[in-house]
Amino acid sequence: MCLAIPGKILEIHEADGLRTGRLDFGGAIREACLTYVPEAKVGDYAIVHVGFAINMLSEAEALATLETIRQIADLDVEIGPGTEAA
């Protein structure tokens, strides 16, 4: 399964000739390539998959997605990994 995560762009710079940025993924700060989203600016939210921002989205969409991901993680903690639902 592939999963793209929304992140808030904190800064934009160039690295190895590519437009790159530091993004906040709900508290985890990571680098991502921003070349595919040239319209991105600091403060925007982007969907990131395997280190590449692939699309932009609104703050409301990003926060709703992050909340859903948190709920999934909480469910895994609550019922335990590998537990099958009845």
Radius of gyration over C-alpha positions, nearest whole angstrom: 15 Å
Helices, by number, come to 1
- What's the assembly state of these chains? single chain
| Helix-and-strand structural type | alpha+beta
Residue share in helix: 10-25%
CATH architecture designation:
Roll
Distance between the termini: 22 Å
Question: How many β strands by DSSP?
Answer: 5
Strand content: 35-45%
Shape: elongated
Description:
- There is one protein chain.
- This protein is an alpha+beta fold and 86 residues long.
- It has one domain (5-79): SH3 type barrels, CATH 2.30.30.
- It contains 1 helix and 5 strands.
- The protein has a 5-stranded antiparallel sheet.
- A hairpin with a 2-residue loop joins strand 2 and strand 3.
- The model has no long low-confidence stretch (mean pLDDT 90).
Keywords:
alpha+beta, single chain, 42% strand, 1 helix, 86 residues, 5 strands, SH3 type barrels, 5-stranded antiparallel beta sheet
Question: Could you outline the blueprint of secondary structure elements for this entry?
Answer:
Layout: E1 5-15, E2 18-25, E3 28-33, E4 45-49, E5 52-57, H1 59-79
Antiparallel strand pairs: 1-2, 1-4, 2-3, 4-5
Quick rundown:
This protein has 1 helix and 5 strands.
